[in-house]
Design brief:
Helix content is 43%, strand content 6%. Helix 3 packs parallel to helix 5. It has one domain: Ankyrin repeat-containing domain (Serine Threonine Protein Phosphatase 5, Tetratricopeptide repeat, Alpha Horseshoe). It has a three-stranded antiparallel β-sheet, with no helix packed on it. A hairpin with a 5-residue loop joins strand 1 and strand 2. The protein is built from eight helices and three strands, in the order E-E-E-H-H-H-H-H-H-H-H. With 143 residues, the protein is mostly helical. GO terms for molecular function: ubiquitin-protein transferase activity.
Amino acid sequence: MREDRKKVRDPEGSEKRDGRRSLAVRDVGLIRHARNGDLDSIKQMIKEGANINEQDETGWTVLHEACVRNLPRIVDYLLRHGANSGLANVNGDTALHCAARVGCLRIVRALLYYNADPILSNHKGEKPLDLCHDSEVSSFLKQ
């Protein structure tokens, strides 16, 4: 009966079946290691030449994954090693949109330090500030 399940898209653009995210959609190597919080494996893959800005079929990058999982050490490492904070997923969300939604001030600060664009709108016309529910992060983004 699995074939009868309706496929839908979640806010990050990855495919879901009955509300559960399909792991295969975002199973690009670096993304998989970020999902597991495995900084050592990410470092090793990048050292071996992995594309730090690789996007899966939904436009998701390892930086998006680290932001939504609230992994500031991984975000810091990725940014220091050339991750592009301006890459958007199929919904137009950048890493800053993801970080604002999660509400991690440390990640938002790091992204802005590395020139993330706080006024860039996604496909719904939402800026990172519009997605933020944390008062401290919201205040910081308003500066």
